[in-house]
Amino acid sequence: MSSAAPVSARITALDVLDVRFPTSEHLDGSDAMNPEPDYSAAYVILRTDATDGLEGHALAFTTGRGNNVQAAAIAALASHVVGLSVEEICADLGAFSRSLVHDPQLRWLGPEKGVIHMATGAVVNAAWDLAAKRAGKPVWRFLSEMSPEELVGQVDFRWLSDALTSQEALDILRRAEPGRQKRIARLLERGYPAYTTTPGWLGYSDEKLARLSREAVADGFALIKLKVGASLDDDIRRMRTAREAVGDGVRIAVDANQRWDVAEAIQWMRELAPYRPYWIEEPTSPDDILGHAAVREALSPIKVATGEHVANRVVFKQLLQAGAVDIVQIDAARVGGVNENIAILLLAAKFGVPVCPHAGGVGLCEMVQHLSMFDYVAVSGTVEDRVIEYVDHLHEHFVDPVRIGEGHYLAPALPGLGAEMHQASLKEYAYPDGPVWSARL
Ligand SMILES: [Mg+2]
Fold it and tell me: Would you call the peptide bond into 148 cis, given omega within 30 degrees of 0 as the criterion?
């Protein structure tokens, strides 16, 4: 990997910030399980003594309370990172990721799930941000220009080989190799398809739902999403309102955010079926593989989607092996970072299941677009039935905010992963001492 920095450059600090946005004040982001989220970031900065002055930025996303716990977990990884050679990390991000994941003491807190795994993901993603900045490329392109062998080297195949071997992964990547340049050109030209959740938050009035739904179609989105699961009567009325607003040619997905038991999910969705929901997202517990399989079997042809709370590649493996999902929803900040998401993209490709990432929150759109674009160029080779979630919140806080045009994510051009926030935002929304919070608390 190219770099103007001296070989001796070291990681000098891993800084962690607790940054929270008071989004609950406007019911933006309200759903059946999260009625009052304050979108928050446990934000990490890797600093180095390289002369290039580059830093690695990333975040773990939370919804407010507990963001300090997430930040503490990230800080617990500092001793693994500070003092390491920047060159060595950037030359083998797979080895770096495995060294964090397999810490023999910290892994007791998981293994590979929950707060500690999200902390690992944030640090691993910050290292990818740093490596891509040093290479002068956005992460999607940095990944898309790696050889199949280098990409396979990013993946931890432990616990995967009954579903996906490293040789099968290599075959998938080699098969996609010939078309890479053509697909990069298409991405640069028209971007990657997006869908919007903006119209469908539970806290919005029917009038606002109808207006925002019509605006979404006018803006070029081919799919909108509604939150459901709080009141069946309300959901039937909202689904009818949205269907009338957008007509028959636009897909409407619904998202229950884990609200139901299995039988309830099936009954509830049968009531919404006349309005032709395209997928039901998180119908029940994200750990319930057999439950998702039962919901899928009962509701076909309505598709079943999950992933934003799926803890790791092993659970994704089982969801795919059990035929429990039609759509895999990766999240940039839930699992162990870019490396584990490469594994999940490869698993989805092996099983022929489309990936439609979860995004929104704060910074999730900025990060996850890189993974879908890489998937298109170098893994699945297609955007058919694939869309990245888009929510128009909080992008103004980012140095390289997502850009949407005609219902597509435009390919990021700046080097890195996109999670870097403006210094002013980090200061203003610092919890609890930044001015936004000291005025409220
Ligand atoms: Mg969701």
Answer: no
